[in-house]
Amino acid sequence: MSEGKLYTLAEVSEHNNNKDCWLVIDGKVYDVTKFLEEHPGGDEVLLSATGKDATDDFEDVGHSTSARGMMEEYYVGEVDKASFPSKPTYHAAKSPPYNHDKTNEFLIKILQFVVPMAILALAVAVRFLTKKEE
Length: 134
Known about the structure:
The protein folds into two domains: 5-79, Cytochrome b5-like heme/steroid binding domain (Flavocytochrome B2, Chain A, domain 1), CATH 3.10.120; 100-133. It is 40% helix and 15% strand. It has five helices and five strands. The N and C termini lie far apart (107 Å). The model has no long low-confidence stretch (mean pLDDT 86). It comes from Marchantia polymorpha.
């Protein structure tokens, strides 16, 4: 395999249709346009791998040694790894500070339960007291 030209991911991404299809696999750029109709998985599989690093897609399928050997005839160059977008970094969601003293919250929850129960008990007591007087 001869040394090819260095392409940016943006340049490779422009080749994303069935008349002009380039892929990036293991940092190498392949023009697979002529292979689209012959690909056993169909051209959609190859077209869906354009515009990104298709290495994982390629490896997940488990291509044979002969398939790997065929790649050489489609090789056009290398991709500039610096042209890949940086990986997104994880940012934890902002949460309110931890409240060690939950007394107020606990008291409110208790009152939300106790007050309606007290009203219900009072209503039942009034009902029974007025029934006895009749």
